[in-house]
């Protein structure tokens, strides 16, 4: 006997205050030779380490997420007006990351220190949830409840009843639980140091599930 089905999509919402801060740092410059680029990259990294060490970040807690040294070029017109590619030198890039508990006072101290760092880093600040499971669970529970409410409304309007759940489909994509609230160069941070007291909003997200219900007493046509 064929089972009558009802398919409903439910959308869930959840939010929570962030508990962790991450600062992404970018060190980048162009030098005439590969050797100079490597030397300057090492010097800039050491300057960042010296800046962050008094603030509670030993070497092992300043993680490098990307490092590269590549030939750098630019396109510009020559004296004949012809567009040509010119070699500029060697560009190094070192992306670093530090994380710590959500503390706006400490954040302000760190950003102010970075603004005075001789390495002149670019940086972005992210607030996120270190443990995402609680938010993920609440979000999915809310999505299933929403699907059930919709199914009951549709069933009542159609003069039928819903039975057991036949399937629940969820794409299991990664739920985003971070937000970027600040991005600047060290010079900009220095100019705006008195305004660095950042209080982020709760991190909110949504997701959907598709639930298939059995219809117990389908109307005969």
TrEMBL record:
Signal peptide location: none
Coiled-coil segments on the chain, per record: none
Pfam families: SIMPL (PF04402)
GO biological process: DNA damage response
Protein name: DUF541 domain-containing protein
């Amino acid at each position: 006997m064929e089972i009558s089905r009802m398919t409903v999509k439910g959308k869930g919402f959840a939010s929570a205050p962030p508990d962790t801060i991450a600062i992404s740092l970018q060190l980048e410059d162009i030098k005439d030779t590969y050797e100079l680029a490597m030397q300057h990259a090492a010097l800039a990294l050491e300057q960042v380490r010296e800046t962050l060490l008094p603030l509670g970040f030993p070497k092992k807690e300043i993680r490098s997420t990307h490092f590269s040294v590549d030939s750098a070029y630019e396109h510009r017109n020559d004296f004949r007006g012809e567009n040509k590619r010119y070699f500029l030198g060697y560009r190094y890039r070192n992306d670093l990351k530090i994380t710590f508990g959500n503390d706006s006072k400490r954040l302000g101290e760190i950003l102010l220190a970075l603004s005075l760092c001789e390495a002149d880093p670019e940086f972005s600040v992210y607030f996120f949830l270190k443990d995402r499971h609680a938010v993920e669970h609440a979000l999915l529970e809310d999505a299933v409840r929403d699907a059930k409410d919709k199914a009951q409304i549709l069933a009542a309007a159609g003069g039928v009843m819903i039975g057991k759940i036949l399937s629940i489909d969820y794409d299991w994509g990664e739920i985003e639980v971070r937000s970027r609230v600040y991005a600047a160069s060290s010079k900009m941070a220095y100019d705006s140091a008195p305004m660095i007291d950042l209080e982020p909003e709760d991190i909110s997200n949504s997701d959907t599930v598709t639930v298939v219900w059995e219809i117990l007493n389908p109307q005969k046509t």
